[in-house]
Amino acid sequence: MTYQIAIDGPAGAGKSTIAKKLARTLGWIYVDTGAMYRAVALFCIRGGIDIRDEEAIVNALPGIDIDIIYNDEGQQVILNGENVNGFIRTEEVSAITSAVSAYGPVRAKVDEISRSIAARNSVVMDGRDIGTTVLPDATTKIFLTASVEERANRRYKEYIEKGIEADLEEIKADIEKRDENDRNREISPLRQADDAVLVDSSFMSIDEVVEEILEIHRGSFL
Ligand code: DC
User: Fold this and answer.
1) Ligand 1 centre and the CA of 141: distance in Å?
2) Confidence (pTM)
3) Domain ranges, residue 119
């Protein structure tokens, strides 16, 4: 018997931090679906493929082999045999991933990989459409959100802690733009599933959110 906790929500709501912690607590696998979209975006950048050219991206898809492996550092994305985890979190990749992820055939490819992992393992999976599309029968569905101000503040602090120069207003504008793209795209937009529980983390610590989700998960068996 395998179980699934699906966590969807806008950029910067803390999905990956929370999902990783939950997976560790439960002894399950954490699946970061955004990382796979990021790998497709990286492939486009490296190959000089124009992200507005859907046909070019779709034609390139058969040559994009994505594999997910797990090591001591967690999920690793293997793009055509190369571990690209170190290259998919840059601003350049972040900026175009939303556009790349709007194409149906790209989504179908990532969905297939995500579902095949969930078929073999109990998973905590995060993304934008896990509860609505990828795992519609997930044991527990969470829609994790926080105010734009709070999400921008958290990202700003992350940058400052890493010694990266950052502008709060710019970060806020970027988050709003990504949310808008993800919510308004035609295929699998960011949306709370009807049976998902809304968790607003604006005024909660990481541990409080983890505890709340664990409680919701336990409640799904009652
Ligand atoms: O979660 P993230 O920031 O790594 O996601 C990167 C982009 O991929 C984001 O713009 C939304 C998109 N994405 C998606 O459309 N569906 C998912 N299940 C996960 C991510």
Assistant:
1) 17
2) 0.94
3) 4-219
